[in-house]
Design brief:
Shape of chain B: globular
Order of helices and strands of chain B: HHHHHHHHHHHHHHH
Largest interface: A-B, 37 and 35 residues
Number of domains of chain A: 2
CATH architecture of chain B: Orthogonal Bundle
Radius of gyration of chain B: 20 Å
Strand content of chain B: under 5%
Largest sheet of chain B: none
Mean pLDDT of chain B: 88
Distance between the termini of chain B: 22 Å
CATH architecture of the largest domain in chain A: 3-Layer(aba) Sandwich
CATH class of the largest domain in chain A: Alpha Beta
Radius of gyration of chain A: 25 Å
Helix content of chain B: over 70%
Structural class of chain A: alpha/beta
CATH class of chain B: Mainly Alpha
Order of helices and strands of chain A: HHEEEHHHEHEHHEEHEEHEHHEHHH
Number of helices of chain A: 15
Shape of chain A: elongated
Distance between the termini of chain A: 62 Å
Oligomer: heterodimer
Low-confidence stretches of chain B: none
Number of domains of chain B: 1
Number of strands of chain B: 0
Chain lengths: 359, 334
C-alpha cells in the first residue's frame, strides 16, 4: 500500500498525461474486479485469510478436519488424509468413497508432498483441532509456500457448533451448517439435562481400554477421554499433568483404580476380557459392564477426535444412564447418520454399527 | 572362594529385592498379607480374591519377568563385551533389538494379536542377526570381528529406517502410540504364559555360555593367542553369537526394547569380580536380575501411570556409567 502511494505521488508530481491517467484507471478497475472475486475471513486462530469467493475444492489437513469437511460439504472434498477402509465405505456417500488418499499435513509427521497438494489445486486448506503457536506457524508457512489459503478451526469439543457455523459460512453452505450446529447443540443440551438429574456419587467411574491388551488409556483431560468426561463420568486414570494424553497402565493399576465401567475400542479385548484372570477382580468385568464403542465409519470415542464424537456422546448417555436418556438409541443413531453422514441405515446397518444387541 | 561367597551374597540380595518388590505396587496389599497370600498360594490354596489375583497373576509374574529380562540382557552383554574385547558393546551391537523392534511394529501395524506381535519380535531379532552374520561372511571370510560390527551397524540402521517408515504409515490415533510404547520397553502387560515361553529359550541360550565359560574367557586374550591355546575361535564366536542372540531376542519380544542394562551391568560386575569371564557371567546374571526388578518396581509404582522402562534405565544407567568411568576406569577394561 505504501508503495502504491509513493507511486501515485510520483505520478502526481508530473504533468498530467491522458495516457497515464487511462492506464491508472484500468489498473484500479482490475484491482476492483480482483477484490470482488476474493474475500477475507477470520479463522479460529484470529488469522485473517483471503479466500476465493467461490470455493469448490477443499483439502482437510488431518483426520478430524476430514470428518468436519465431509459432514458439511462432501461435494468439495478432493481427497482423504487416510482413505476409508472397505468396512467404512457403506457408511459414507458414494461420491467420496473412492477419493484418493493424499496424506496428512499436520505437524512433523507430514506424509503429503506440497507439490502433489498444489497439483490437486485446492481453493483452501482447512485444519480442525488444537490451536497453538505450532499449528499457527505451520499454517502460515504452508500458506506462504503454496499460496493456498489455510484456515485453522478450533477443534475443542464444546466448540463444535461454532466450528460448524464458521466453516459453513466460508464454504457457503450456511443452511446446512445451521442445521448441523442446531443438532449438535441439541445433543449437548440433552447431556446437560440428564446430568442435572444424576448426582455426582451416582456417576460411573470409567476406564477407557485401548489396544488389544486394553492397557493403553487416556488420562484425565486427554482428547481421547474428553467425551467420557463430558458425559459426566469420572475417568479413573489421573494423569501427570492437567492436559492428559495416552498412557499405559498395568492390570494391577486397573484393579487399584476399580472402575465400574470399561469402554473399549478393541473388539478382541472385549471378547477376551472375561477369560483374563488378571482382569477378574475389576468391578466392571465382574459386573459385565465392558462396552465396545462402535467405530463405523468413525469411532464413537476418539478416532478421530472430531464430530463423530457427537453420536458417541448420545451412545455414552444411553450406556451410562439407560433410564434417564430420552428416546431410543437406535433412532438417535439413525437420524444422526442421516443428517451428518447423509446415509440411511437399515436394521442390518444399525446392527453392524451398534452390534446386534446394541440399543 | 571369595567369588563363591560374593555370589551367595548376590543371590541373597536378589531374593531380598524380589520380596520387597512383591510388597510394592499400586494395589495396596500389606507386607503381612503378601506373605500370607504367597505362603497360602504356594501350598496350593488360592482363594481367587483380589489380592490373590494381583499377586499371582500380575505382580509375581512381572517380578519373574523383570529378573529374566535383566539376567538375560546382562549375560548377553557380558558375552559380547568379552567377544568383541570392547567395553562399549551392548547386546544390540549386531542389531538384534532393532530387528526385534521392526518385527513387532510390523505386527502392530497389521493389528495382529499380542502373541503374534511377540513372535514377530523374536523372529525379527533372529533374522536381523542372521543377515548380519551372512553379510560379514560374504565380505571377509569369517575372520574379522570388525567387519561383523560394521555389518551390524549397517543392518541395524536399515531396520531403524524401516521402523520409521512403519511409524509414518501407522494410524496416528491408534497404532502410533502403541509403537512408541513398545519401542520404549515395558513389562506392564506381561503374563505367566509369556515367561513360560521365554524362560526355556533364555536357559537354552545361557547353557552354552556357562558350559564354555573358560574358553570364552580365553577369547579376551586375542584371537591368535586363543588359537595358540587350542580354541577353535570361529566356531566359538559363532556359538556365542547364536546364544546371545537367542537370549536377547526372546526377552526383547516380551519386554520391548530396553537399553543400557546389557551395557552397564557387566561393568558393575567387572568392578566386583574383575574381568575373568567365568566369574563375570554369574555375577552379571545376578546383578542384572536384581537391577531390573528394582527398576521395574519404580516403573510400576512411582507414578500414577506406567513409566517406560527404557526411559528409566537410561536415566539411571547414564549417570551411573559416567560415575563408574570417572572412578574405576582401570578395572573396567575387559
Amino acid at each position: 500500500m505504501a508503495a502504491l502511494m509513493r507511486l501515485l505521488r510520483v505520478w502526481r508530481s508530473r504533468p498530467v498525461q491522458p495516457a497515464r491517467t487511462a492506464a491508472i484507471a484500468v489498473l484500479c478497475g482490475l484491482l476492483l474486479v480482483g477484490s470482488a472475486l476474493a474475500r477475507t475471513v477470520t479463522d479460529s486462530a484470529g488469522r485473517t485469510v483471503e479466500v476465493p469467493d467461490r470455493i469448490t475444492r477443499v483439502f482437510a489437513a488431518g483426520p478430524p478436519a476430514s470428518v468436519l469437511l465431509y459432514v458439511l460439504a462432501p461435494q468439495d472434498m478432493i481427497g482423504w488424509v487416510r482413505a476409508p477402509r472397505e468396512a467404512e465405505k457403506p457408511f459414507l456417500l458414494p461420491s467420496v468413497r473412492s477419493l484418493p488418499e493424499l496424506g496428512r499435513l499436520t505437524g512433523r509427521g507430514d506424509t503429503l508432498n506440497l507439490e502433489r497438494l498444489m497439483a490437486e489445486k485446492p481453493d483452501v486448506l482447512i485444519d480442525f483441532g488444537t490451536i497453538n503457536e505450532t499449528y499457527r506457524s505451520l499454517a502460515d508457512r504452508v500458506q506462504s509456500q503454496t499460496g493456498i489459503p489455510y484456515l485453522l478451526i478450533d477443534g475443542r469439543f464444546e466448540n463444535t457448533p461454532a466450528a460448524l457455523r464458521l466453516l459453513a459460512d466460508i464454504l457457503h453452505v450456511t443452511e446446512r451448517g445451521e442445521a448441523l450446529a442446531k443438532a449438535a447443540e441439541t445433543i449437548f443440551a440433552d447431556v446437560d439435562r440428564v446430568l442435572a438429574q444424576v448426582p455426582q456419587d451416582r456417576r460411573p467411574r470409567v476406564y477407557l481400554a485401548r489396544g488389544p491388551e486394553g492397557l493403553e488409556s487416556g488420562s484425565r483431560g486427554s482428547i481421547n477421554t474428553e467425551i467420557i468426561e463430558r458425559a459426566g463420568a469420572v475417568n479413573v486414570v489421573e494423569g501427570l499433568r492437567r492436559k492428559g494424553g495416552i498412557v499405559t497402565a498395568s492390570p494391577e493399576q486397573v484393579i487399584a483404580w476399580a472402575p465400574d465401567t470399561i469402554i473399549t475400542l478393541d473388539r478382541g479385548f472385549r471378547d477376551a476380557v472375561a477369560q483374563k484372570t488378571e482382569w477378574a477382580p475389576v468391578p466392571a468385568v465382574r459386573n459385565k459392564r465392558v462396552f465396545l464403542a462402535p467405530g463405523l465409519p468413525y469411532g464413537f470415542i476418539d478416532a478421530p477426535p472430531s464430530l463423530n464424537r457427537l453420536i458417541g456422546l448420545s451412545w455414552l448417555l444411553h450406556t451410562f444412564y439407560p433410564d434417564k436418556a430420552a428416546g431410543r438409541l437406535r433412532d438417535d443413531v439413525r437420524s444422526f447418520y442421516r443428517l451428518f453422514y447423509q446415509v440411511d441405515l437399515d436394521d442390518a446397518g444399525l446392527d453392524q454399527v451398534l452390534g446386534p444387541s446394541g440399543g | 572362594m571369595r567369588t563363591a561367597a560374593l555370589l551367595l551374597v548376590l543371590t541373597a540380595a536378589l531374593i531380598a529385592i524380589a520380596l520387597v518388590a512383591a510388597g510394592i505396587g499400586p494395589y495396596a496389599i500389606s507386607p503381612l498379607d503378601v506373605l500370607r497370600t504367597v505362603l497360602r498360594g504356594l501350598s496350593g490354596q488360592r482363594d481367587g480374591g483380589a489380592a490373590d489375583t494381583v499377586l499371582f497373576n500380575i505382580r509375581l509374574p512381572r517380578i519373574v519377568a523383570a529378573a529374566t529380562v535383566g539376567a538375560a540382557l546382562a549375560a548377553a552383554g557380558a558375552a559380547y563385551q568379552n567377544l568383541f574385547r570392547n567395553p562399549l558393546v551392548s547386546p544390540d551391537i549386531l542389531g538384534v533389538s532393532t530387528g526385534a523392534g521392526l518385527g513387532a511394529v510390523v505386527g502392530i501395524l497389521f493389528g495382529l494379536p499380542v502373541v503374534m506381535i511377540q513372535l514377530m519380535g523374536f523372529a525379527g531379532g533372529l533374522a536381523t542377526v542372521s543377515v548380519v552374520v551372512m553379510l560379514s561372511r560374504m565380505l571377509r571370510g569369517n575372520s574379522d570381528v570388525l567387519v561383523l560390527v560394521l555389518a551390524g551397524i549397517v543392518v541395524g540402521a536399515l531396520a531403524g529406517a524401516a521402523i520409521s517408515l512403519v511409524k509414518v504409515l501407522a494410524d496416528p490415533y491408534d497404532q502410533l502410540p502403541a509403537i512408541t510404547f513398545w519401542l520404549l520397553g515395558s513389562l506392564a502387560g506381561v503374563k505367566a504364559a509369556d515367561i513360560a515361553a521365554t524362560l526355556p529359550v533364555v536357559i537354552i541360550g545361557l547353557a552354552p555360555l556357562v558350559l564354555l565359560r573358560w574358553r570364552i574367557g580365553l577369547l579376551s586374550l586375542g584371537d591368535d593367542e586363543a588359537r595358540a591355546l587350542g580354541v577353535n575361535v570361529v566356531r566359538l564366536r559363532n556359538t556365542i553369537i547364536v546364544a546371545a542372540t537367542l537370549i536377547t531376542a526372546s526377552v526383547v519380544a516380551i519386554s520391548g526394547v530396553i537399553g543400557w542394562v546389557g551395557l552397564m551391568v557387566p561393568h558393575m560386575a567387572r568392578l566386583l569380580v574383575g574381568p575373568r569371564f567365568d566369574r563375570l557371567l554369574p555375577t552379571s546374571v545376578l546383578l542384572g536380575a536384581s537391577f531390573m526388578i528394582a527398576v521395574d518396581t519404580v516403573a510400576r509404582s512411582a507414578a500414577r501411570i506406567e513409566i517406560p522402562l527404557g526411559v528409566l534405565t537410561a536415566l539411571i544407567g547414564g549417570p551411573l556409567f559416567v560415575w563408574l568411568l570417572a572412578h574405576h576406569r582401570r578395572k573396567l577394561l575387559p
